[in-house]
Specification:
It is built from six helices and 15 strands. By secondary structure, the protein is an alpha/beta fold. The chain has two domains: 79 residues, Translation factors (Elongation Factor Tu (Ef-tu), domain 3); 159 residues, Rossmann fold (3-Layer(aba) Sandwich). The protein is globular and about 50 Å long.
Length: 254
């Protein structure tokens, strides 16, 4: 697809992943690198950034007006998509992936590309874990749930304590920002922040680096053009894990 040119896609299948997360499959498909995102236009509602969970799908959590409108659609309905945009994850043979909640979506294509040696998968409870069967087919999966309903009882970051982090070429992370900040803190204590990369989610208006709404402090780097995947060395002394900005530019604590 031509970058920046809107493409109309038709929804072919909607799959319920959890109670409030669905995967929307569409045609045509897109050529992309795992971790890149697209701008999804819900006609008459809004345009929002979404990670691709495959070449022809996005996986969406129902959290606001635009996503609620998505959840009201059915196969045969149409969306507008621009992209893919931004940087993806590093592709190597010895990658540790850490996913929390819907953050598993952009890491699924990385695992399917045979790049992930180990994947730590976390959620609040067993019924909110994403893509367990698919991930089990292509990598070694370790599970943690906050309530202990499956796997380790506690946060997914605790699973890192049982691993030799120096054995991995890269550590790819996506999930709630508080969780990602905890990962960065752990690896920085071992001097391994140079191995990490994190997928950021920020409010975006244009998706092509013009409006500046997704700039991060203090570097001014744009999540849409310079990210959404950033190395931990850049994020260590940034707003990451502390606050982000809403549509008006006002800081919102995380």
């Amino acid at each position: 697809m031509t970058e920046g040119t809107p493409v109309t896609v038709k929804i072919t299948l909607i799959k319920n992943e959890t109670q409030n997360i669905r995967s929307f499959f569409f045609e045509p498909s897109f050529v992309f690198s795992p971790g890149q995102f697209v701008m999804v236009w819900v006609p008459g509602v809004d345009e929002i950034p979404m990670a691709l969970s495959s070449q022809n799908s996005i996986t969406v959590q129902n959290v606001g007006d635009a996503t609620a409108a998505l959840f009201a659609l059915a196969p045969g309905d149409r969306l507008g998509i621009r992209g893919p945009f931004g940087n993806g994850f590093f592709k190597g043979e010895k990658v540790l992936a850490i996913a929390g909640g819907v953050g598993a979506a952009p890491l699924l294509p990385l695992a399917k590309a045979d790049c992930v040696m180990t994947l730590l998968l976390g959620a609040r409870t067993e019924t909110e874990l994403l893509f367990v069967d698919q991930l089990d087919e292509c990598t070694d999966v370790m599970i943690a749930t906050d309530d202990g309903s499956l796997g380790y009882h506690g946060f997914v970051t605790a699973l890192m304590d049982d691993l030799n982090l120096t054995a991995y070429d890269r550590i790819a992370v996506c999930g709630p920002e508080v969780m990602m900040r905890a990962v960065l803190t752990k690896v920085a204590e071992k001097g391994l922040e140079h191995k990490t990369e994190f997928s950021l989610h920020r409010y975006m208006k244009c998706g092509v680096g013009v409006c500046g709404s997704c700039c991060i402090d203090p570097s001014g780097l744009r999540v849409c053009r310079d990210g959404p995947v950033f190395p931990g060395t850049i994020l260590l002394k940034s707003e990451f894990g502390h606050y982000m900005r809403d549509a008006s530019g006002t800081k919102k604590n995380i």
